[in-house]
Every structure is written in structure tokens, then in C-alpha cells.
Amino acid sequence: MSESSDSDAPEAADGTDSPQVTDSANTSDSSTADRPDSAPGTVQTEAGTAASVVVCFDMDGVLVDSEDYWHVAEREEILPRVLADGSRTPDLDEVTGMYYGEIYDYLAEHYEVVVDKDAFMSLYEETAESIYGERVELLAGAREFVADLRGEGVPVALVSSSPRDWIETVLDRFDLEFDLIAPAEEFDGPGKPEPGLYEAAIRDLGGTVDRAVAIEDSANGVLAAARSGAYTIAVRDDHNRDSDLSPADEVVDREDPAALYEAVRHSTRTIRESVSGNSGNSG
């Protein structure tokens, strides 16, 4: 892993089959690419060939600054109501980046919880309304950068542990569009830190893991992306200064969006050049 945007060529990885994101071709206007009827959620590429490179963005902590708000809410409001008085409390790094339904399962297994799962999820849903609807801000230049990638023919996915309605709140507020929305709640398998969500999203974009770039911020998200075989760029910010982001191929600071975008540009360019070179050699 390096802490700069100038990196070596992404290494190839084996892209094996994994469960699909269920019905990612939702009726939401935020996911706009045409998809073949035989494979819901799959972005159709020219002549049915694999895309030369695809890009996957995490949402929380990458595109929007929600993690700081979530950490305060979890520490001061949610966990005190969920865990028994005087019991051990988790390091927030343990659960950041996970789907909130799986956070409850994790807490129930490792800690002493005093509410049921429905009550737990209601606490998160109530908090999410104000965080996404009123408080978060979009990373500077993100809308234009995603639009530029898509305009250049690079399929782009949003791969998030947040449920679709939270995602759509963000997309609507900031006028964001992606080729594929891949929420963990719609995935038939374990979410982050397991790699399946990324593997499915990359496949549904028409790509392969050795031709994919993923941008993440949490230790769980970075681990999921890296395990999938995608070239992984980690975003460092105040909320994750002490997090282990070592599985990433490189780390950039969220306070410097231009460096992040250059890192994505560099990695996608390297992959495209590698694909082009391999095609020429095979001829």
C-alpha cells in the first residue's frame, strides 16, 4: 500500500462467480443505464464484451461526510440504548462500513444487547433521516467527476452498506447518477467486509475484478474491496485516522479531492493500457 496517488499497475485477480445484487435495475431514476432483460442489474456493454475498466464508489465517508455524524450518533445515542448498562462497548471501527442489520447481529453475538432487532433498526432509520436529508455534504467535485467518468464510457457503481432509501435521499439531494446502485440490503449474501457485494457489482457493471477500481474509507469496506480483487483506493479522513487501511493499494486524503480523482484516473488509465497491451499481444 502507498500513501500517494502515483501507483503501480493493479494486479490481476481471479473473478469467480458470486451471488448477484437482487434487482439492482430498480425503477429509481438514479440508476440510468440500459440493462438486458436476461440479467437484471447488469450494465450492457458494446457487443456483449466486458468493460475495459469499471469504477465502484462507496457512499458514506467517501462521497458524503456522513461517518462523523454516524459516529457521534452511535456513541452518544444509539449504543447507550442498545447495550446493557455497564457492559463492554465496541470500538466503532468494528462496525463502521457494515449494513446496519448486520451490525445488530454482530453486537448480539459479541456484546450484551437489550433491544430487539426491529427496535435497533428503527433507531438507525430515525437517525438517517436527519443525517442524509439535512446534514451531510457532498465531496467537492464528486458530481462532475462521476459524470465525466460515465461520459467517457466508464461504468460507475455505488456500492454501499446503506439501504436504497438512504442512498436515494443522497442522490436526489445532490443530483448524482450512477450506472448501478448496489445496496447491501439487496445482496443475497454477507455484506462488507466480505467481498461478495463488490464481486457482484463489478460483474453487474459488465466488468471483471482485475479491471475494477474501488474507492472506500472504512476498514470493513477497504477489506471487502481488496478481497474482491479490485484495485482499492482508501480515503483517509478525521473519522478513520486510526483505522487499518493497509489492505488498500493506496491511500489518499479526503481533504484533497483532486488527489483522489487523480488516483482514480491513474488507476483506470493503467488498467486500460494493460488491457489494450494484452489485446495487442494476443493478436
Automatic annotation (TrEMBL):
Biased composition (Acidic residues): 1-11
Lineage per the UniProt record: Archaea, Methanobacteriati, Methanobacteriota, Stenosarchaea group, Halobacteria
Region Disordered, annotated ranges: 1-45
Pfam families reported for this sequence: Hydrolase
Biased composition (Low complexity): 22-31
Keyword entries, A-Z: Hydrolase
Record has Signal as a keyword: no
Family from the record: Belongs to the HAD-like hydrolase superfamily.
Species the sequence originates in: Halobaculum roseum
UniProt protein name: HAD family hydrolase
PANTHER family in UniProt: 2-DEOXYGLUCOSE-6-PHOSPHATE PHOSPHATASE 2, PSEUDOURIDINE-5'-PHOSPHATASE
GO molecular function: hydrolase activity
